Amino acid sequence: xxxxxxxxALGLAVLGLxxxxxxxxxxxxxxxxxxxxxxxxxxxxxxxxxxxxxxxPPAIYYxxxxxxxxxxxxxxxxxxxxxIFIPLTLIPLYGLTRRLAGADAARWAMxxxxxxxxxxxxxxxxxxxxxVLLPLTWAVWATVRAGxxxxxxxxxxxxxxxxGGLFALTLWxxxxxxxxxxxxxxxxxxxxxxxxRGKTRLTLAGVLPWCEGIAFTLGGVAVALxxxxxxxxxxxxxxxxxxxxxxxxxxxxxxxxVKALIDQFGHYLAFRWLHWGVLLILVGxxxxxxFKPDGRLRLMGLWILGGLTFVFIQGKGFDTHWLLLLPPLxxxxxxxxxxxxxxxxxxxxxxARVGILAAxxxxxxxxxKDTWVRAWPYFSGxxxxxxxxxxxxxxxxxxxxxxxxxxxxxxRYPAGETIYIWGFRPExxxxxxxxxxxxxxxxxxxxxxxxxxxxxxxxxxxxWQVLPPVVIVVRADYMPWVTGxxxxxNTILANDYQALRDWLIYNYDRxxxxxxxxxxxxKGNV
Length: 526
Known about the structure:
The protein is built from 24 helices and seven strands. By secondary structure, the protein is mainly alpha-helical. Helix 2 packs across helix 3 (59-71), helix 7 packs parallel to helix 9 (178-196) and helix 8 (154-171) packs parallel to helix 11 (210-233). The protein is globular.
């Protein structure tokens, strides 16, 4: 790899990251708020699930907690994670793409990944499904390096152990990511089989890379076991098992019928095409161009297969679930773009240079229109924060309404005060610097029959003890995919949670309404 190749790759990566800088000013969605509240609890000695509840595996919470320790507990600190993780992901991505389709394609991958990652919606960034691309891509890279090392050597064994450890780490982001780990392990076995075919008599002992398989397993155990023992000792593991039962019912809603599955995926498939259409066209070009990869095309196909299996198992098709496919699609898309430039070069070298400039400009504009173009009036002082926030909406989440609610709370309650929010809007508490009054920072584990019925009384008992100064009830937030009901939070409270409603009416007065937020303030004699 020449110095010029390094400079071009680095320059394209830096370009993409500079264009992505405005994500630091993005608002938070409900998931980021959930992780942030748990991270704050961890920083104060708490444990996930036990002291602050959610359904995700714990890696994302500790990642947020570490970030807050170094950068402060703020919204920009949350989005700084993306700007830290993506550059580190580009390193193995370059090596993988170079092996797949050559150095020129690898350069394009340095721009394609930032473009199609940072044009995701504000609610899809800084997620467990997005940040996991860092350990996952490094794990695949380590597997490839193990396969390139002479079979049975210490170098192959160490790379295999590193691969196993990194894949184990990905499972602490979400255990369903095992689908990719399994297909990559399969690819490694097939790769080794291809290396020895025709060179020796095929026997089970001769075909399977036993030493590397054992190293892969030991690497995974070395990472997973200490974490597992820690959580078992503190009661977190039993809580995770209880949560997994509820999550299985939640995921199973989409498999109630074929129509339910089609309806669930239809919208998100259309959105994926609108968002990734250019990338998917480039992937198609790479297939039609029939480029000659260095034996790694099968790995990309299996990675995509593993990612699609993950999306299907989740049963929702949410935006974040598709991000597992982004690295292999970027590599294939980079190969397709390189193939197009190669065709132009065969016609006229100047035409190829124009093509390179046009492709760089087009990709840059695709990202800049979602970042700098949208943020510049705010950064330059032409508009205020609330006007800027109007550009961000994800379902029932309207960022300008969120900011208005946060500012109302900050004007009346000091940082660290408690708040109870009935609905699924934990980001409001975090952004206002307030602490959720109970461990149930969202309402859905207290709705329906997916989770222990005793949690409802536990929640009310805690509220009687804490009596936060303010309660927010959310309306017009229809979330049947988690509640199992077609009603909004306000209606669910009125019809399905008598104990909480009685507590609220006894202790609080109905006050202002800010958008879809109904504010209840504690009575003066309580």
